[in-house]
């Protein structure tokens, strides 16, 4: 069998990941991040794999990762199984069989699960879904970032699409960053249906609705305009084409809420487009 792009990525990234310093008590808090997680084809994209891995290498290896993914909308708020080697969720269709055979056997995350539960308000109990593992909004980017699968990882479900309520959930998770955990909102900066030409790979040009929405979001992030971002349904150019459904944008509000200063400086880490959709990803302190 010929070597895949992912195989080559892991040959070069695994030794560096093994030597990556781990977060220690006394280190600075880890950032709050929003990443565009793409789709399984991300694992065939040498540039995108490299961008995600170098982002991970720019910070200490976390004690664990908490992901709120576009692909798990569930109320009441729940977490995935903390058991080591919990099977993945292959929540996609139409891809080569090899993508359904990939694994990502993360370590036991019981300690992280207990910390998440402790962060929740007294009025809200946290449900543990013992039958659910990581979906592709978590394991696809994490496989690029931490190829050794040596970081405990849990997902927290997205119980609402209200920006205010998601920011409140992010605030409950904020303290975890100060304890060495990485908090991730995982979506896609634009997520409309690409044109047939883009899906077939015959053009790399994004459509105007994708560019316009991305530029709008980038400007408001730079301005620290959280209220403006919250009005994306009515104010953003390119809507509703950029987000016919909103679940790939709203994890951004988890990221803002988990930041020490949601209106503070944003560091953009990944830009550009894939199948016409914006890959924009960023972090805040």
UniProtKB/TrEMBL annotation:
<feature type="region of interest" description="Disordered">
    <location>
        <begin position="1"/>
        <end position="24"/>
    </location>
</feature>
<keyword id="KW-0479">Metal-binding</keyword>
<keyword id="KW-0223">Dioxygenase</keyword>
<protein>
    <submittedName>
        <fullName>Class III extradiol ring-cleavage dioxygenase</fullName>
        <ecNumber>1.13.-.-</ecNumber>
    </submittedName>
</protein>
<keyword id="KW-0560">Oxidoreductase</keyword>
<dbReference type="GO" id="GO:0051213">
    <property type="term" value="F:dioxygenase activity"/>
</dbReference>
<dbReference type="InterPro" id="IPR014436">
    <property type="entry name" value="Extradiol_dOase_DODA"/>
</dbReference>
<dbReference type="InterPro" id="IPR004183">
    <property type="entry name" value="Xdiol_dOase_suB"/>
</dbReference>
<feature type="compositionally biased region" description="Basic and acidic residues">
    <location>
        <begin position="1"/>
        <end position="11"/>
    </location>
</feature>
<feature type="domain" description="Extradiol ring-cleavage dioxygenase class III enzyme subunit B">
    <location>
        <begin position="50"/>
        <end position="263"/>
    </location>
</feature>
<dbReference type="Pfam" id="PF02900">
    <property type="entry name" value="LigB"/>
</dbReference>
<keyword id="KW-0862">Zinc</keyword>
<comment type="similarity">
    <text>Belongs to the DODA-type extradiol aromatic ring-opening dioxygenase family.</text>
</comment>
């Amino acid at each position: 069998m010929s070597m895949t792009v992912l195989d080559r990525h892991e040959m070069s990234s695994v030794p560096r990941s093994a030597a990556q310093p781990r977060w220690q008590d006394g280190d600075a808090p880890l950032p709050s991040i929003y990443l565009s997680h793409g789709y399984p084809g991300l694992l065939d994209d040498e540039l995108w794999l490299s961008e995600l891995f170098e982002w991970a290498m720019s910070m200490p290896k976390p004690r664990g990762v908490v992901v709120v993914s576009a692909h798990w909308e569930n109320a009441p708020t729940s977490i995935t199984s903390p058991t080591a080697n919990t099977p993945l969720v292959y929540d996609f269709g139409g891809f080569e069989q090899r993508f359904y055979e990939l694994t990502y056997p993360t370590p036991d995350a019981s300690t992280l699960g207990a910390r998440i539960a402790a962060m929740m308000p007294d009025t809200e109990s946290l449900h543990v879904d013992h039958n659910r593992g990581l979906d592709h909004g978590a394991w696809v980017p994490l496989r690029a970032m931490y190829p050794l699968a040596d970081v405990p990882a849990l997902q927290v479900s997205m119980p609402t699409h209200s920006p205010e309520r998601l920011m409140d959930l992010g605030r409950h998770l904020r303290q975890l960053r100060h304890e060495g955990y990485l908090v991730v909102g995982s979506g896609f900066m634009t997520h409309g249906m690409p044109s047939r030409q883009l899906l077939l790979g015959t053009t790399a040009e994004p459509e105007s609705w994708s560019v316009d929405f991305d530029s709008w979001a980038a400007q408001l992030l730079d301005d620290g305009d959280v209220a403006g971002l919250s009005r994306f349904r009515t104010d953003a150019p390119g809507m509703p084409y950029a987000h016919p459904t909103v679940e790939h944008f709203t994890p951004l509000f988890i990221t803002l809420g988990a930041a020490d200063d949601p209106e503070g400086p944003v560091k953009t880490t990944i830009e550009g487009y894939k199948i016409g959709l914006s890959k924009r990803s960023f972090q805040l302190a």
